[in-house]
Design goal:
By secondary structure, the protein is an alpha/beta fold. The chain has helices at about 10-20, 90-110, 145-160, 185-195, 215-230, 245-255, 280-285, 295-305; strands spanning about 1-5, 30-35, 50-55, 75, 115-120, 130, 165-170, 175, 200-205, 210-215, 235-240, 240-245, 260-265, 275. The chain has a seven-stranded parallel sheet, with helices on both faces. Strands 8-10-12 form a three-stranded mixed sheet. Strands 6-14 form a two-stranded parallel ribbon. Bound molecules: nicotinamide-adenine-dinucleotide. Nicotinamide-adenine-dinucleotide (NAD) binds near residues 32, 36, 79, 118 and 180.
Length: about 300
Amino acid sequence: MNLLITGCCGHIGSYLTENVHKIKKIKKTIIIDNLESNRYYSLFNIGNKNNIKFLIRDISRKNSLSDIKNINYVIHCASMTNAEKSFSKKNKMYRNNIDCLKTIISFCKKNNSKLIHLSSTSVYGKQAKIVDESCEKKFLKPQSPYADIKLLEENMLRKEGNALNYITFRFGTIAGVSKGIRFHTAVNKFCFNAALNQNIAVYKTAMHQYRPYLSLRDAFKVFKFSIEKDFFNNDVYNALSGNYTVDQILKKIKKSRKNIKVKLVKTLIMNQLSYKVSSQKLNKAGLKLKSKIDQDIKDTLKLLKNLS
Ligand SMILES: NC(=O)c1ccc[n+]([C@@H]2O[C@H](COP(=O)([O-])OP(=O)(O)OC[C@H]3O[C@@H](n4cnc5c(N)ncnc54)[C@H](O)[C@@H]3O)[C@@H](O)[C@H]2O)c1
């Protein structure tokens, strides 16, 4: 079986590329990125455990994949992703991410490829109670253009009905080390600040409020499960390793870096919005995610040791 990974240089795509040989069934992998994120390092020493071939492509272009054939599965990670910056880049992000998905949908339909689509738990926005995938529309309150686009993407796929075989995973905020690691996201940003002995800015009401996180190791388990179990039922699933408060994350960081500096700020910080998400639906489907993000935090801080 052959796999196509888009956005292979990114935080998730680079981890997936390095581990793809662990997915039974996959014999050949084509990996694609437009290199906009400049994470060339993700391409170094990829090895050849899984017969991997890299192509530079901008998949927001309609015909960018027209020469690729015989692909059984697509894992679509290509996206502009910085939620905080998405307010100033709204139009560009909208065009890029929606056009990428259009290309992918048309490719999958033409080639009969099964699609893993990545959405985000940020579609839930701010919530007082625990939310799950079956919540009413009024409980979906995306708070950024990035999260808004994720909902639009989910709807695009829903509209395809049975013309396409896909599954959407709403990933919690990723924690963990990969070649293409980025530091816009909560845990990684905190680790970076801690390593540089900088203030960690915490939104004043966020300290004891929950949000969902996903270890990179668990993210990979989701991909492996979906392909090995042929789990493509045109539905939406939350994927998270756990819900944690900012305070709990800071305590985990303190285990490795005792003297961190925390500053409470009044400006709303996108990655500290509060919502608690249920993982029951994926559990019931047979996948229980339980990696400890303590390990991801430890690994990230280790990567950054001796910085200050
Ligand atoms: N990292 C997280 O915390 C998180 C959480 C929830 C969902 N997700 C979703 O998972 C997916 C992957 O996230 P990530 O953290 O790896 O993102 P990332 O920003 O680290 O990587 C995305 C990659 O896509 C590439 N790309 C962007 N536009 C492209 C285009 N037009 N053509 C080809 N390549 C293009 C970029 O160059 C980059 O290397 C995204 O859809 C993201 O929204 C991520």
